[in-house]
Design brief:
The complex is a heterodimer of chains A (about 120) and B (about 110). With about 120 residues, chain A is mostly beta strands. Chain A is built from no helices and eleven strands. In chain A, strands 2, 4, 5, 6, 9, 10 and 11 form a seven-stranded mixed sheet that branches. A four-stranded antiparallel sheet of chain A has the order 1-3-8-7, with no helix packed on it. Chain B is built from no helices and nine strands. Chain B starts with 8 loop residues before the first strand and ends with a strand. The chains are: A mainly beta (about 120), B mainly beta (about 110).
Chain lengths: ~120, ~110
Amino acid sequence: DAGVIQSPRHEVTEMGQEVTLRCKPISGHDYLFWYRQTMMRGLELLIYFNNNVPIDDSGMPEDRFSAKMPNASFSTLKIQPSEPRDSAVYFCASSLRTSGRALGELFFGEGSRLTVL
Amino acid sequence: DAKTTQPTSMDCAEGRAANLPCNHSTISGNEYVYWYRQIHSQGPQYIIHGLKNNETNEMASLIITEDRKSSTLILPHATLRDTAVYYCIVRSGSYNTDKLIFGTGTRLQVFP
């Protein structure tokens, strides 16, 4: 099992440029989450999908951020235009709902470290 | 959404049990308690979760008080590799709107 795969692992870009982060969830998982982590704000949930449908995007900071999940095996998080304050580690996680009411274990990728100059 | 309160940091000697407390006094009847940890610069790692009963797996034990207002994560024999930030999370939302909101967690330092 390859786990959750994120790319790129590191990205350095200049302010104003478009950034696209990619995530391949674990096969068969029906939930996908995007988190952002900074020293100041900790781990923040940006958006999550269930069966490729966005369920809650209340954590998306502003219109510059958008996320898509065109199919069960791929998701993107796009920032356009990027700003220095977007510098963070972006994590993708996937999960499979277990029986009953419990959300299953979230499996996190290794993260994409973004630096906007 | 139920909030959690954890100590900012804790120390534990290698080989001893690490007991990490979490207060979640506003938890509602159908909300689960989850524990994750994050080792430096890695993605968070699931440890365990529970609703009412105590739970145990190969990594840890979770003790939930009878009134469910608090819980304790127990690492029975801490090792240096258990040094990490430990997050106690109460699942937010209704049945079909799951999300896990991470707080600031407890930074556990295991020393030789």
